[in-house]
Input
Amino acid sequence: MADESAKQQETLLEFPCDFPVKIMGLAGNDLAQAVLTVVARHDPDFDGATMEMRASSGGKYVSLTCTVKATSKPQLDALYMELTAHPLVKIVL
Output
């Protein structure tokens, strides 16, 4: 029972849930497609049409918000690791 309690304390999220992930990078045609490819690998039902895009005031950077269906902490961890490792991605929140 202690193991189960420890696992629950690792995250305050209750799965499954909708979880927004914000990705920032240099503005360009390739970022959105690259992010969509990575997100779809971790959430096969993700609808790319729901991706929100916002350019910075100077237009040099863009932020993308993808709300994924989170099913577990390992799924979210793997998604964050793959996104942060991508060369086009600067920050993942």
Q: What stands out?
A: Helices lie at 2-9, 29-42, 73-85. The chain is about 40% helix and 30% strand.
